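Researcher: For the annotation table, I need structure tokens for Methylmalonyl-CoA mutase alpha/beta chain catalytic domain-containing protein. Please keep the output clean. Sequence:
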Amino acid sequence: MDIQEIKAQRFPKVTLEEWEKTATASLKGKPLAALQTATYEKIVLKPLYGPNDASSDTEQYPGYPLYTRGFHKGGYMEVPWKNAHAVKADNSAALTEKLAAALKAGQDAISFALEDLPAMTFSEFSALPLEEHPLYINTKDHFLAIASFLLKSKTSKLYGAIGTDIVSLYAEKGLVAGEQTLALYAQAATELKKAFPRLKSIRIDTAPYHEAGANAFQEISLALAEAVFYIEWLKEKGWSPAEVVKGMAIHFAIGSQFFMETAKLRAFRQCWTTLCEAYGITGDDVKVLIGAETSSFNLSKLDRHVNILRTGSEAFSALLGGVEYLQVKSFDEVSGMPSALGERIAKNIPLILKDESHLGEVIDPAGGSYYIETLTAQLSQSAWEHFLAIEQAGGIIAALKAGTLQAELAEMLEKKNDELAIQKKSMIGTNIYADLHEDILKEKPKLSVLRAEQSVASFNELADQVTEKTTIAELHAKDSGSEVIPVKGQRLAEPFERLRERAKGIEAKAGLICLGKLKEFKPRADFVTGVLATGGIMAHLSGECQTLEEAVRFIKESKLSYYCICGKDEAYDQFGPQLVAAMKQTNSSLRIDLAGRLSDEIKAEWQQAGLDGQLYKGQNLIEKATELLDHLEGVAAYE
């Protein structure tokens, strides 16, 4: 076949009815709805999307309201995204060295984690190449110090975004910022606006809500609610709504639901444009800076190299959604200071997506997908409704003070934890395919620095204290505000990490009584081995047990305190409850489980003989492993 014949080839057209007929036949009696799944956003995902699913008013061109397809007509070809990996270092010299190496190797923005560097002095900060690259720095507790440093430095052409979200940051701490704190932040932002018109200093950071369990539309609605708070607050300080938006940067964390996260960024722009129109903001003034980081929520200390796949997928999703800067987490930073390899990979992921996947050469690559366009529309609708509900209840500060926001996030976090615990959702190396032979790195203690807390009357008074040797910590202003329920985040893997650390301390082991031939017991033995591994418990198999005597002999030889019986249902019928009774006769304190689920009637007979529990699909792994470790620790303590 020559090239012309190849070009002439066409796939046959398949109608939706033909697809449904074929799919139904393959389901062997199950309804087509069995292929549907529900998301955390209460959106039902269908197995196939077509023209009838997408809205008839779907935007056709980027650069036009509602800006679903991006703020710029030329996409990344017009405004390339910036690789803004946040460099981590525990001293200024190491930071300077790491930043120089990163910039030389292709990173094109300055970003670093200030929480690791509270001892950095004004002279050390001023020595950084601040004017040569855009700045994307989350100042967290140190906004006033960094603002003071910038205003005292000799720089004049700064651009990018440096700021602290005083709503979400304080909510993490269980606080709502008080009037003194708000006044200091407003003064600092006003001075920065005058000195550096291209530098964004009003930060909206939804990452704390993401890490507390928020779903996609909740993150969008909370970003909108925070925007209203900042606009209304700074209006009282003399800012116009357009000036607030011009000085604002919106920062998202990107999770593991690939298409949902892409749709999240697209839906946000729709909602954002609508919000701006309500304030009379139109045209280029709507085009707020949007950045993203890969999710800490999905990082795990277990089988940590899998984190590379997670961050790579999340980075891809963020770029499809359209961000101005991207921060990729190091795969091993969850254990403390990342390794050189971790930082190199984090820095290179955006470069690979740019230079090898060519994402920078396609305008809105996700545009036109019936699936993504439908997701975007549904997310936008849900987010806007949720945002209006927050505003009708008094706004985001009122929601934090009432505790309704925290309760909502806690409910969603519990649902995500539960689905991981019952393996409805998989996390490789954590709740499935656990590797008990890996060396789990312990989390390094965070740098502890005494801060010189002080109360100052104004930001200018604080800035006047800056000298060459002034440190960030010395300019830390005292927090003031009212207490609220903290917006408490966690990583999904943390409950499993705690189990594994606990099990390692006692070298937890379990014996598997394997009934019948290998091919008969292997499916359940493999299942049990995998389940036990997620809790850090090593399985020791008996080999083929054809009689009660062989099972009892294995128990006497292995001398373990916990056993699980594995085999086919037919083997359970053959051996019966007397197998458990014989095992208990060797040691009455043995704990014995059975793989699979017995009917209530049969289970009662086995329990009467001494069966303690069962291991089965859909069981809560956290609860089961905790129960087993309680037993194993008790035995270890007695011995």
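Researcher: And a one-line annotation?
Model: The radius of gyration is 29 Å.
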